[in-house]
Amino acid sequence: MPELGLRYADGICFSEGDQVVVDFVNKIEAGENYLNTPNMAFKVNGLNKVNKALAPFADLDSLPFYDYNLDDQFLLDQGLFQMTKELLKERLAGYPYPVPTLFFLTSRGCPHRCSYCNNSRYINLFGHNIMRFYNIDRIIEELEYTLGHLNFIEVVVFGDDDFFMRSRKQLEYFANTYKKRIGLPFGIAVSANTYRKEKVEILLDSGLKVIQLGVQSGSQRTLDEVYNRKIKISKTKDVVQQMASYHKTHGLDVLLDFIIDNPYETRDDIIQTYQFILDLPLHVRINIFFLAFFPGTPIYNKALMDGIIKPFNEKEFRFYTRSHVTYQRNYETFLILLARFLRRHRRLRRYFTKYPLRVLGRHPVRCIASILPESFYFMMSKRVQ
Ligand code: SF4
Questions:
Q1: Residue from 138, 137, 186, 125 nearest 160 by CA
Q2: What is the CATH number of the domain that holds 106?
Q3: 259: closest CA among 287, 289, 233, 285?
Q4: Residue 112 near ligand 1, beta carbon < 6 Å
Q5: Could you tell me if 47 and 32 lie in one domain?
Q6: pLDDT tens sequence for the chain (385 residues)
Q7: Are residues 104 and 221 located together in one domain of the fold?
Protein backbone atom coordinates (compact mmCIF):
# COMPACT_ATOMS: atom_id res chain seq x y z
CA MET A 1 0.00 0.00 0.00
CA PRO A 2 2.10 2.93 -1.30
CA GLU A 3 0.40 5.48 0.97
CA LEU A 4 1.88 3.68 3.96
CA GLY A 5 5.25 2.65 2.59
CA LEU A 6 6.04 6.18 1.52
CA ARG A 7 5.74 7.40 5.10
CA TYR A 8 9.07 5.69 5.72
CA ALA A 9 10.83 5.39 2.37
CA ASP A 10 11.56 7.58 -0.65
CA GLY A 11 10.38 4.88 -3.00
CA ILE A 12 8.77 1.45 -2.80
CA CYS A 13 7.83 -1.42 -5.05
CA PHE A 14 4.13 -2.15 -4.47
CA SER A 15 3.71 -5.11 -6.80
CA GLU A 16 5.99 -7.87 -8.07
CA GLY A 17 9.54 -6.61 -8.47
CA ASP A 18 11.14 -9.26 -10.68
CA GLN A 19 11.15 -7.26 -13.90
CA VAL A 20 11.25 -3.73 -12.61
CA VAL A 21 14.10 -4.03 -10.14
CA VAL A 22 16.60 -4.56 -12.97
CA ASP A 23 15.28 -1.58 -14.87
CA PHE A 24 15.29 0.54 -11.72
CA VAL A 25 18.87 -0.30 -10.73
CA ASN A 26 20.13 0.22 -14.28
CA LYS A 27 18.55 3.67 -14.39
CA ILE A 28 20.08 4.66 -11.06
CA GLU A 29 23.47 3.42 -12.19
CA ALA A 30 23.24 5.37 -15.45
CA GLY A 31 22.08 8.51 -13.62
CA GLU A 32 18.76 8.45 -15.51
CA ASN A 33 15.29 9.39 -14.29
CA TYR A 34 13.81 6.37 -12.51
CA LEU A 35 10.65 8.02 -11.17
CA ASN A 36 8.45 6.50 -13.89
CA THR A 37 9.44 2.89 -13.15
CA PRO A 38 6.22 0.81 -13.22
CA ASN A 39 5.16 -1.20 -10.13
CA MET A 40 6.90 1.46 -8.04
CA ALA A 41 5.84 4.58 -6.15
CA PHE A 42 7.99 7.53 -5.08
CA LYS A 43 7.79 10.57 -2.90
CA VAL A 44 8.28 13.53 -5.23
CA ASN A 45 8.28 17.05 -3.75
CA GLY A 46 6.32 15.78 -0.77
CA LEU A 47 3.62 14.11 -2.93
CA ASN A 48 3.08 10.43 -3.64
CA LYS A 49 3.70 9.46 -7.26
CA VAL A 50 2.19 6.00 -7.84
CA ASN A 51 3.13 4.51 -11.23
CA LYS A 52 1.12 2.02 -13.27
CA ALA A 53 1.07 -1.66 -12.28
CA LEU A 54 2.29 -4.20 -14.84
CA ALA A 55 0.49 -7.46 -15.55
CA PRO A 56 1.73 -10.24 -13.22
CA PHE A 57 5.07 -11.69 -14.22
CA ALA A 58 4.31 -14.91 -16.10
CA ASP A 59 7.52 -16.75 -16.98
CA LEU A 60 8.66 -17.77 -13.51
CA ASP A 61 11.15 -20.31 -14.89
CA SER A 62 13.13 -17.50 -16.50
CA LEU A 63 13.98 -16.00 -13.10
CA PRO A 64 17.43 -16.64 -11.60
CA PHE A 65 17.74 -18.80 -8.50
CA TYR A 66 17.68 -17.02 -5.15
CA ASP A 67 21.17 -15.88 -4.26
CA TYR A 68 22.51 -17.74 -1.25
CA ASN A 69 26.14 -16.79 -1.69
CA LEU A 70 26.55 -15.11 1.70
CA ASP A 71 29.81 -13.24 0.98
CA ASP A 72 28.00 -10.04 0.00
CA GLN A 73 24.93 -10.40 2.21
CA PHE A 74 24.25 -8.76 5.54
CA LEU A 75 21.86 -8.90 8.44
CA LEU A 76 20.28 -5.64 9.57
CA ASP A 77 19.13 -6.09 13.17
CA GLN A 78 20.19 -3.39 15.64
CA GLY A 79 23.36 -3.02 13.59
CA LEU A 80 24.67 -4.32 10.30
CA PHE A 81 26.37 -7.70 10.42
CA GLN A 82 28.05 -9.90 7.84
CA MET A 83 25.63 -12.75 7.12
CA THR A 84 27.06 -16.14 8.02
CA LYS A 85 25.79 -19.69 7.82
CA GLU A 86 25.50 -19.78 11.63
CA LEU A 87 23.33 -16.65 11.71
CA LEU A 88 21.14 -17.90 8.91
CA LYS A 89 20.76 -21.29 10.53
CA GLU A 90 19.57 -19.62 13.72
CA ARG A 91 17.14 -17.35 11.86
CA LEU A 92 15.67 -20.13 9.75
CA ALA A 93 14.56 -22.23 12.73
CA GLY A 94 11.24 -21.80 14.50
CA TYR A 95 8.19 -22.69 12.44
CA PRO A 96 6.62 -25.18 12.21
CA TYR A 97 9.46 -27.06 13.96
CA PRO A 98 12.42 -25.68 15.93
CA VAL A 99 14.90 -26.83 13.26
CA PRO A 100 16.43 -24.96 10.30
CA THR A 101 13.70 -24.76 7.67
CA LEU A 102 13.78 -23.57 4.08
CA PHE A 103 10.61 -21.84 2.91
CA PHE A 104 10.22 -22.19 -0.84
CA LEU A 105 7.57 -21.17 -3.38
CA THR A 106 6.71 -23.30 -6.40
CA SER A 107 3.83 -21.14 -7.62
CA ARG A 108 2.33 -17.69 -7.24
CA GLY A 109 -1.30 -16.81 -6.68
CA CYS A 110 -4.26 -18.47 -5.05
CA PRO A 111 -7.52 -19.63 -6.63
CA HIS A 112 -9.51 -18.09 -3.75
CA ARG A 113 -10.32 -14.53 -2.88
CA CYS A 114 -10.77 -14.26 0.87
CA SER A 115 -11.84 -10.83 1.97
CA TYR A 116 -8.98 -10.32 4.45
CA CYS A 117 -6.12 -11.70 2.35
CA ASN A 118 -3.37 -9.96 0.40
CA ASN A 119 -4.45 -12.03 -2.60
CA SER A 120 -7.55 -9.85 -2.86
CA ARG A 121 -5.32 -6.82 -3.12
CA TYR A 122 -3.31 -8.43 -5.93
CA ILE A 123 -6.46 -9.50 -7.74
CA ASN A 124 -7.69 -5.89 -7.62
CA LEU A 125 -4.33 -4.69 -8.88
CA PHE A 126 -4.09 -7.19 -11.74
CA GLY A 127 -7.80 -7.15 -12.58
CA HIS A 128 -8.13 -10.93 -12.34
CA ASN A 129 -6.98 -14.00 -10.48
CA ILE A 130 -3.93 -15.56 -12.06
CA MET A 131 -2.04 -18.65 -10.99
CA ARG A 132 1.50 -19.24 -12.17
CA PHE A 133 3.67 -22.31 -11.65
CA TYR A 134 7.35 -23.14 -11.79
CA ASN A 135 8.29 -26.19 -13.79
CA ILE A 136 9.03 -29.17 -11.55
CA ASP A 137 12.52 -29.84 -12.96
CA ARG A 138 13.37 -26.23 -12.31
CA ILE A 139 12.09 -26.50 -8.70
CA ILE A 140 14.27 -29.52 -8.01
CA GLU A 141 17.32 -27.89 -9.61
CA GLU A 142 16.90 -24.76 -7.50
CA LEU A 143 16.40 -26.82 -4.35
CA GLU A 144 19.61 -28.76 -5.07
CA TYR A 145 21.49 -25.52 -5.65
CA THR A 146 20.10 -23.88 -2.51
CA LEU A 147 20.59 -26.87 -0.25
CA GLY A 148 24.15 -27.12 -1.58
CA HIS A 149 24.76 -23.70 -0.01
CA LEU A 150 22.58 -24.23 3.06
CA ASN A 151 23.63 -27.73 3.97
CA PHE A 152 22.18 -27.37 7.49
CA ILE A 153 18.52 -27.29 6.37
CA GLU A 154 16.44 -30.10 7.89
CA VAL A 155 12.93 -29.38 6.56
CA VAL A 156 11.56 -27.76 3.40
CA VAL A 157 8.21 -25.95 3.62
CA PHE A 158 6.53 -25.14 0.33
CA GLY A 159 4.82 -21.81 0.98
CA ASP A 160 2.42 -22.01 -1.98
CA ASP A 161 -1.07 -20.89 -1.01
CA ASP A 162 -2.53 -24.14 -2.31
CA PHE A 163 -0.10 -26.91 -3.26
CA PHE A 164 -2.93 -29.08 -4.57
CA MET A 165 -3.59 -26.73 -7.47
CA ARG A 166 -1.21 -29.02 -9.35
CA SER A 167 -2.60 -32.03 -11.18
CA ARG A 168 -2.18 -35.54 -9.89
CA LYS A 169 0.25 -36.29 -12.74
CA GLN A 170 2.44 -33.34 -11.80
CA LEU A 171 2.39 -34.29 -8.15
CA GLU A 172 3.47 -37.82 -9.04
CA TYR A 173 6.42 -36.51 -11.04
CA PHE A 174 7.29 -34.07 -8.24
CA ALA A 175 7.10 -36.80 -5.57
CA ASN A 176 9.36 -39.20 -7.46
CA THR A 177 11.95 -36.58 -8.35
CA TYR A 178 11.93 -34.96 -4.90
CA LYS A 179 12.37 -38.28 -3.15
CA LYS A 180 15.35 -39.24 -5.34
CA ARG A 181 17.17 -35.91 -5.43
CA ILE A 182 16.20 -33.99 -2.27
CA GLY A 183 14.83 -36.45 0.26
CA LEU A 184 14.20 -34.02 3.16
CA PRO A 185 10.90 -34.02 5.06
CA PHE A 186 8.62 -31.30 3.72
CA GLY A 187 5.40 -29.40 4.39
CA ILE A 188 2.63 -27.92 2.24
CA ALA A 189 -0.54 -25.84 2.59
CA VAL A 190 -3.76 -26.89 0.89
CA SER A 191 -7.41 -25.93 0.76
CA ALA A 192 -10.33 -28.17 1.74
CA ASN A 193 -11.74 -27.64 -1.77
CA THR A 194 -8.67 -28.98 -3.58
CA TYR A 195 -7.87 -31.71 -1.05
CA ARG A 196 -7.82 -35.21 -2.55
CA LYS A 197 -6.92 -38.39 -0.69
CA GLU A 198 -4.90 -39.72 -3.62
CA LYS A 199 -2.86 -36.51 -3.83
CA VAL A 200 -1.87 -36.71 -0.14
CA GLU A 201 -0.94 -40.34 -0.50
CA ILE A 202 1.34 -39.61 -3.46
CA LEU A 203 3.23 -37.08 -1.34
CA LEU A 204 3.31 -39.10 1.88
CA ASP A 205 5.61 -41.60 0.26
CA SER A 206 8.10 -38.89 -0.72
CA GLY A 207 8.49 -37.26 2.71
CA LEU A 208 5.36 -35.18 3.38
CA LYS A 209 5.62 -34.40 7.11
CA VAL A 210 3.27 -31.50 7.76
CA ILE A 211 0.15 -30.18 6.09
CA GLN A 212 -1.49 -26.83 6.84
CA LEU A 213 -5.10 -25.93 6.19
CA GLY A 214 -7.05 -22.71 6.73
CA VAL A 215 -10.32 -23.17 8.62
CA GLN A 216 -10.63 -19.56 9.85
CA SER A 217 -14.07 -19.92 11.42
CA GLY A 218 -16.41 -22.72 12.47
CA SER A 219 -19.36 -20.59 11.40
CA GLN A 220 -20.63 -21.01 7.84
CA ARG A 221 -22.20 -17.55 8.05
CA THR A 222 -18.82 -15.96 8.80
CA LEU A 223 -17.14 -17.89 5.99
CA ASP A 224 -19.82 -16.93 3.45
CA GLU A 225 -20.77 -13.42 4.45
CA VAL A 226 -17.65 -12.01 6.08
CA TYR A 227 -14.64 -13.87 4.68
CA ASN A 228 -15.94 -14.68 1.17
CA ARG A 229 -14.63 -18.23 1.47
CA LYS A 230 -16.55 -20.60 -0.77
CA ILE A 231 -15.87 -23.64 1.36
CA LYS A 232 -18.44 -25.70 3.22
CA ILE A 233 -17.57 -26.13 6.87
CA SER A 234 -18.86 -29.71 6.73
CA LYS A 235 -16.36 -30.43 3.96
CA THR A 236 -13.53 -28.88 5.97
CA LYS A 237 -14.43 -31.06 8.97
CA ASP A 238 -14.36 -34.13 6.80
CA VAL A 239 -11.00 -33.21 5.24
CA VAL A 240 -9.46 -32.50 8.66
CA GLN A 241 -10.51 -35.93 9.96
CA GLN A 242 -9.03 -37.57 6.86
CA MET A 243 -5.74 -35.68 7.18
CA ALA A 244 -5.55 -36.38 10.93
CA SER A 245 -5.83 -40.13 10.30
CA TYR A 246 -2.38 -40.11 8.63
CA HIS A 247 -0.75 -39.06 11.91
CA LYS A 248 -0.80 -42.58 13.25
CA THR A 249 0.05 -44.36 10.02
CA HIS A 250 2.60 -41.92 8.51
CA GLY A 251 3.49 -39.45 11.29
CA LEU A 252 1.81 -36.61 9.36
CA ASP A 253 1.36 -33.43 11.42
CA VAL A 254 -1.69 -31.28 10.76
CA LEU A 255 -1.76 -27.52 11.36
CA LEU A 256 -5.02 -25.59 11.22
CA ASP A 257 -5.42 -21.82 11.03
CA PHE A 258 -8.23 -19.90 12.69
CA ILE A 259 -8.97 -16.18 12.76
CA ILE A 260 -10.56 -14.72 15.87
CA ASP A 261 -11.48 -11.30 17.26
CA ASN A 262 -13.47 -10.38 14.21
CA PRO A 263 -15.97 -7.58 14.96
CA TYR A 264 -18.40 -9.01 12.38
CA GLU A 265 -18.93 -12.27 14.27
CA THR A 266 -21.77 -12.86 16.72
CA ARG A 267 -21.25 -14.84 19.90
CA ASP A 268 -23.05 -17.75 18.25
CA ASP A 269 -20.52 -17.65 15.39
CA ILE A 270 -17.64 -17.66 17.84
CA ILE A 271 -18.95 -20.62 19.81
CA GLN A 272 -19.08 -22.64 16.58
CA THR A 273 -15.33 -22.11 16.15
CA TYR A 274 -14.86 -23.23 19.75
CA GLN A 275 -16.88 -26.39 19.10
CA PHE A 276 -14.90 -27.05 15.93
CA ILE A 277 -11.69 -26.90 17.95
CA LEU A 278 -13.03 -29.21 20.66
CA ASP A 279 -13.84 -31.86 18.05
CA LEU A 280 -10.24 -31.98 16.81
CA PRO A 281 -7.93 -34.85 17.73
CA LEU A 282 -5.37 -33.63 20.28
CA HIS A 283 -2.39 -34.14 17.97
CA VAL A 284 -3.75 -31.55 15.52
CA ARG A 285 -1.98 -28.23 16.08
CA ILE A 286 -3.93 -25.00 15.90
CA ASN A 287 -2.80 -21.48 15.02
CA ILE A 288 -5.03 -18.73 16.35
CA PHE A 289 -4.65 -15.43 14.51
CA PHE A 290 -6.21 -12.05 15.28
CA LEU A 291 -8.04 -10.49 12.37
CA ALA A 292 -5.91 -7.74 10.85
CA PHE A 293 -7.40 -5.18 8.46
CA PHE A 294 -4.91 -4.89 5.62
CA PRO A 295 -5.43 -1.84 3.38
CA GLY A 296 -6.56 -2.80 -0.11
CA THR A 297 -8.63 -5.77 1.05
CA PRO A 298 -12.46 -5.86 0.98
CA ILE A 299 -12.70 -6.33 4.73
CA TYR A 300 -10.54 -3.25 5.29
CA ASN A 301 -12.88 -1.19 3.07
CA LYS A 302 -15.92 -2.53 4.89
CA ALA A 303 -14.49 -1.82 8.34
CA LEU A 304 -13.59 1.69 7.18
CA MET A 305 -17.12 2.32 5.92
CA ASP A 306 -18.61 0.94 9.13
CA GLY A 307 -16.41 3.20 11.25
CA ILE A 308 -14.59 0.29 12.91
CA ILE A 309 -11.16 1.49 11.78
CA LYS A 310 -9.70 4.78 10.59
CA PRO A 311 -7.93 5.14 7.23
CA PHE A 312 -4.25 4.14 7.25
CA ASN A 313 -4.14 4.26 11.00
CA GLU A 314 -1.05 2.30 11.94
CA LYS A 315 -2.23 1.69 15.50
CA GLU A 316 -4.96 -0.53 14.10
CA PHE A 317 -2.57 -2.70 12.12
CA ARG A 318 -2.06 -5.09 14.97
CA PHE A 319 0.27 -8.01 14.68
CA TYR A 320 -1.93 -10.87 13.55
CA THR A 321 -0.03 -13.49 15.51
CA ARG A 322 0.70 -11.65 18.74
CA SER A 323 -2.00 -9.32 19.90
CA HIS A 324 -4.74 -8.83 22.46
CA VAL A 325 -8.45 -9.23 22.06
CA THR A 326 -9.88 -5.92 20.90
CA TYR A 327 -13.33 -6.43 19.39
CA GLN A 328 -14.62 -9.57 21.06
CA ARG A 329 -13.86 -9.25 24.76
CA ASN A 330 -16.36 -11.90 25.69
CA TYR A 331 -16.73 -15.33 27.23
CA GLU A 332 -16.84 -17.18 23.88
CA THR A 333 -13.53 -15.75 22.64
CA PHE A 334 -11.98 -16.51 26.04
CA LEU A 335 -13.10 -20.14 25.62
CA ILE A 336 -11.26 -20.42 22.29
CA LEU A 337 -8.06 -19.07 23.83
CA LEU A 338 -8.52 -21.36 26.83
CA ALA A 339 -8.92 -24.38 24.54
CA ARG A 340 -5.72 -23.47 22.72
CA PHE A 341 -3.89 -22.98 26.03
CA LEU A 342 -4.93 -26.40 27.29
CA ARG A 343 -4.05 -28.12 24.02
CA ARG A 344 -0.57 -26.61 24.18
CA HIS A 345 0.12 -27.71 27.75
CA ARG A 346 0.09 -31.47 27.80
CA ARG A 347 0.10 -31.69 31.60
CA LEU A 348 -3.08 -29.61 31.87
CA ARG A 349 -5.05 -31.58 29.30
CA ARG A 350 -5.85 -34.40 31.67
CA TYR A 351 -7.42 -32.03 34.21
CA PHE A 352 -9.62 -30.52 31.57
CA THR A 353 -10.92 -33.19 29.28
CA LYS A 354 -13.29 -32.44 26.45
CA TYR A 355 -16.41 -33.04 28.49
CA PRO A 356 -16.02 -30.13 30.94
CA LEU A 357 -14.96 -27.92 28.04
CA ARG A 358 -18.14 -28.84 26.19
CA VAL A 359 -20.22 -27.96 29.22
CA LEU A 360 -18.56 -24.53 29.33
CA GLY A 361 -19.78 -23.96 25.78
CA ARG A 362 -23.44 -24.76 26.51
CA HIS A 363 -26.06 -22.10 26.26
CA PRO A 364 -27.08 -21.83 29.95
CA VAL A 365 -23.44 -21.60 31.07
CA ARG A 366 -22.77 -18.95 28.42
CA CYS A 367 -25.77 -16.94 29.65
CA ILE A 368 -24.52 -16.96 33.22
CA ALA A 369 -20.90 -16.28 32.23
CA SER A 370 -21.96 -13.32 30.11
CA ILE A 371 -23.04 -11.45 33.24
CA LEU A 372 -19.38 -10.70 33.93
CA PRO A 373 -18.02 -7.50 32.35
CA GLU A 374 -15.85 -7.30 29.20
CA SER A 375 -12.90 -6.14 31.29
CA PHE A 376 -12.93 -9.47 33.13
CA TYR A 377 -12.74 -11.46 29.88
CA PHE A 378 -10.07 -9.16 28.52
CA MET A 379 -7.95 -9.90 31.59
CA MET A 380 -8.69 -13.63 31.47
CA SER A 381 -7.91 -13.81 27.74
CA LYS A 382 -4.51 -12.24 28.36
CA ARG A 383 -3.77 -14.90 30.98
CA VAL A 384 -4.31 -17.77 28.57
CA GLN A 385 -2.49 -16.26 25.60
S1 SF4 B 1 -7.18 -19.38 0.59
FE2 SF4 B 1 -5.57 -18.50 1.89
S3 SF4 B 1 -4.09 -17.60 0.51
FE4 SF4 B 1 -5.96 -18.00 -0.69
S5 SF4 B 1 -7.09 -16.07 -0.67
FE6 SF4 B 1 -7.84 -17.31 1.04
S7 SF4 B 1 -6.56 -16.75 2.82
FE8 SF4 B 1 -5.55 -15.99 0.96
A1: 186
A2: 3.80.30.20
A3: 289
A4: yes
A5: yes
A6: 888 889 999 999 999 999 999 999 999 999 999 999 999 999 999 999 999 999 999 999 999 999 988 999 999 999 999 999 999 999 999 889 999 999 999 999 998 899 999 999 888 888 888 899 999 999 999 999 999 999 999 999 999 999 999 999 999 999 999 999 999 999 999 999 999 999 999 999 999 999 999 999 999 999 999 999 999 999 999 999 999 999 999 999 999 999 999 999 999 999 999 999 999 999 999 999 999 998 889 999 999 999 999 988 877 777 777 778 999 999 999 999 999 999 888 777 777 777 889 999 999 999 999 999 999 888 888 888 7
A7: yes
CA–centroid distance, residue 62 to ligand 1 (Å): 26
Whether 363 is in a domain gets the answer no
Report whether residue 114 contacts ligand 1, using a CB cutoff of 6 Å: yes
Residue 368 lies in a domain: no
- For ligand 1, atom 6, which residue shows the shortest CA distance? 114
Q: Are 39 and 20 contacting, i.e. CB atoms less than 8 angstroms apart?
A: yes
206 lines ligand 1 (CB under 6 A): no
Domain total in the chain: 2
Task: Single out the residue in 305, 323, 341 at which a domain terminates.
Answer: 323
Of ligand 1's listed atoms, the one at least distance from the Cα of 120 is: 5
Regarding whether 129 and 5 lie in a shared domain, the answer is no
In this prediction the pTM is 0.93
- Protein residue closest via CA to atom 1 of ligand 1: 112
Same structural domain, 114 and 24? no
Q: How far is the CA of 113 from the centre of ligand 1 (A)?
A: 6
Amino acid at 325: V
The minimum-distance atom of ligand 1 relative to the CA of 214 is: 2
**Any domain includes 83:** yes
Q: Are residues 109 and 253 in the same domain?
A: yes
Please tell me the residue having the least CA distance from ligand 1 atom 8.
117
Cα separation, 376 vs 270, in Å, equals 18
Q: How far, in Å, is the centroid of ligand 1 from the Cα of 109? A: 9
Could you list the residue range(s) of the whole structural domain that residue 28 is in? 1-54
Using CA of residue 119, residue 125, residue 131, residue 132, what is the dihedral sign? negative
Size of the chain in residues: 385
Cis ω for the linkage preceding 96 (within 30 of 0): yes
Ligand 1 binding pocket includes 110 (Cβ within 6 Å): yes
Please list the helix, strand and coil fractions of the chain in percent, rounded to the nearest 5, in that order. 45, 15, 40
Domain presence at residue 347: no
Same domain, 147 and 24: no
User: Does one domain contain both 28 and 144?
Assistant: no
Do 88 and 13 lie in a common domain? no
